[in-house]
Amino acid sequence: MQQIGHWIDGAQVNGADRHADVYNPATGEVQAKVALATANDLDRAVEVAKAAQPAWAATNPQRRARVLMKFVDLLNRDMDKLAEALSREHGKTLPDAKGDVTRGLEVVEFCIGAPHHLKGEFTDSAGPGIDMYSMRQPLGVTAGITPFNFPAMIPMWMFAPAIACGNAFILKPSERDPSVPMMLAELMEEAGLPKGVLQVVNGDKVAVDAILDHPDIASVGFVGSTPIAAYIYERAAANGKRAQCFGGAKNHMIIMPDADMDQAADALVGAGYGAAGERCMAISVAVPVGDETADRLIEKLVPRIESLKVGPYTAGDDVDFGPVVTAAAKENILRLIQSGVDAGAELVVDGRDFKMQGYEDGFFVGAHLFDRVTKDMEIYQKEIFGPVLSCVRAQSYEEALGLAMDHEYGNGTAIFTRDGDAARDFAKRVNVGMVGVNVPIPVPLAYHTFGGWKKSMFGDLNQHGPDSFRFYTRTKTVTARWPSGIKEGGEFSIPLME
Ligand code: NAD
Fold it and tell me: For ligand 1, is residue 280 a contact (CB within 6 Å)?
């Protein structure tokens, strides 16, 4: 049985004797045991990080960027290996696993611009003989806690900017798929990162709480479900840490009567069922405007959904989606589907009997489509995080907009229309952080920022893009007077810069 430890001080170490099973979701078999850290294991990583960070911060930003440049080469060199390890533990298809690595790699590329992003501001002659300037300094030891659904991308979204800014970073990845984060840490060191600057501490709530309470950890980044995001934000803030915590989602796609219905149906199928719906930017609610639009949409969707190919990642590139991550996730999805049926929603595509031949113990869930879902139903209110799309019929554009606005989550949303005025109004008014216009999954690119609103995000600064350089640095502003002033004699009233 493969044993996965922690990555501390440039080596794999076992730590305390606590472990969790890591499954292959396609077969249902336990394929590895991952170490679960105690507070002592975390303490050791923090001590190592504290020792390594000052020299890293003192390395000039261009040299730090060169490590990231080399890391990009290594990611490309090992792309197939990383994707295979990722699919084996997560269950997503190989092309999708490569996308997971690539979307992280793009943020690393953005962070190669660190020398530019870290430049401060300067005001010449803010007063007589006085200059004012600001610098961005690293926080010290930073930490991140990441979810199972993007085990390559989200760790890189955090550690690339943190490290580019001169911090040390401790990653606590999901215990469900820890192999790729460990491989990334090893590759960063192969790229030239000094030991101790990036470490991986595997674990569960015990490790997370140790991070939240450690006095020498300056900031915490979190991505995962909303209840945990709220908990981490509160506890980190109570302990005086900077925190950005990204939570769950229920992304609505509005389909206007004038939309190209084939295009909308294709977009919905990819955005609803890709990665078995286990994406925080998946579309889980379709909102056609008008019954006629709804009927046309459902008619286009059903054959597309029924012909989706479900299978293990080993079955080839034409598989559309794989299993969900655990038996517990599957059980929760099936329970929610039953609640939808019980509440009176119309199950137009029923995947409950789906069985994957030869993989009967795998965590496969067939594709489902509900029509006539209403706001009071649990399947509408909760994030299902599975291959289940709900159609809520709206009678007007305002009603459709109101649905997206009133939902507690505000991660992503989209509108499909040929009317520029409707699209513009929607983008301007909707209270959701990321908006697509005829684009179903509007994940911003590396040089813009990523973040939801409402219960999808706790904190202020977003992930990647310019915000990430703000999150991982503190601003220091210096007011300097040369050469006259002190030598002329002391000043005892507040300076007015006259
Ligand atoms: P999760 O909340 O169960 O776990 C996330 C992390 O928190 C893991 O590292 C886990 O070990 C840790 N954790 C779990 N329970 C904890 C507890 N009680 N106390 C402290 N730490 C705990 O989420 P998940 O199932 O891994 O990921 C899926 C969720 O993540 C979905 O809700 C999805 O929408 C969300 N997500 C959000 C974004 C975003 O950017 N908003 C991106 C990806 C995923």
Answer: yes
Instruction: Name the residue of 154, 223, 457 to mutate for ligand 1: max ligand atoms within 8 A of Cβ.
Output: 223
For the Cβ of 462 lying below 6 angstroms from any atom of ligand 1, the answer is no
- C-alpha closest to that of 411 among 448, 350, 455: 455
Report the atom number in ligand 1 closest to the C-alpha of 249: 34
**Residue-wise pLDDT tens digits, 201-221:** 999 999 999 999 999 999 999
- Catalytic residue (choose from 111, 245, 280, 391): 280
* Catalytic residue check, 245: no
pTM of the full structure: 0.96
List, in order of start, the domains of the chain with CATH numbers. Answer: 2-247+456-478 (3.40.605.10), 251-437 (3.40.309.10)
Asked whether 411 lines ligand 1 (CB < 6 A), one says yes
Percent of the chain with pLDDT over 70: 98
Atom of ligand 1 nearest to the CA of 450: 40
Residues 378-410 pLDDT 10s: 999 999 999 999 999 999 999 999 999 999 999
What separation in Å is there between the alpha carbon of 205 and the centre of ligand 1?
A: 11
* Ligand 1 proximity of 284 Cβ (cutoff 6 Å): no
pLDDT one-digit tens code per residue, 71-118: 999 999 999 999 999 999 999 999 999 999 999 999 999 999 999 999
Is the ipTM here above 0.90?
A: yes
